[in-house]
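Observation: inputs received (chain + zinc ion).
Thought: call the complex predictor directly.
Action: predict_structure
Action Input:
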Amino acid sequence: MNQTDTPVNSIYLCSPVNALVEGLYEQKVPFTRIKKHGDFGLGTFDNLDGEMVMLDGIIYQITSMGKVNLVEETALTPFVSVTFYRPMSHDRIENEMTYEAFLEWLKGLFPSPNIFYAVRIEGEFSYIKTRSVPKQENYRPLVEVAKEQPVFTFENISGTLAGFFTPEFMGSISVPGLHLHFLSSDLRHGGHLLECRPKNAVVGVQLISSLELGLPISLDYLTVDFKRDTTGDLDKAEK
Ligand SMILES: [Zn+2]
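Observation:
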């Protein structure tokens, strides 16, 4: 499938998030393939080597040391979520908001909790708290890894939050609810968002009504047992 065949408002996942939760950190999906499905999104890298954020087709890695690297398209990934970002609306935040107020306000921009949304928030934040993940061998459950996650906090920082809202009932496919990754304007900081207080920002929202899900043809994936309910693990690992 080439870019022109891809429906505009479609989200692409190269693997269900359940596989990541069960510790399958090596699926060897190249970003050359990912980029056929989107220019915007988030995810990680093979061996869980940091957080990934893609903005305007550029792939950034935020390592567990908090360093930001530009990543070649030949890099490999076990899990990403991407789309071709085309916002349908823009809203402004002009006063500082608590994280709770921000989440509530953002929810008000979504006409329904039953479809996907791509969300891009650009501006100034009085506070940002992120985490990254340390590089791992396969098979260590994500919830164990997340216990050792390095956490970073920043005050008065400008940058971009990028990610998705996923319907609650799709929790085995992607992270349910809001999932955002941060990249600072100076390209020096970032990570998986844990908390923020935006104060002056533009919020773009894109409605997404279609999903394309890749299922890895790897021995790990073909033989993993998905009977376990991973809802609790995913919640602990991602929130
Ligand atoms: Zn994340």
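Thought: report the result.
Final Answer: Residues 118 and 126 are 23 Å apart (CA to CA). Residues 42, 51, 179, 181, 192 surround zinc ion (CB under 6 Å).
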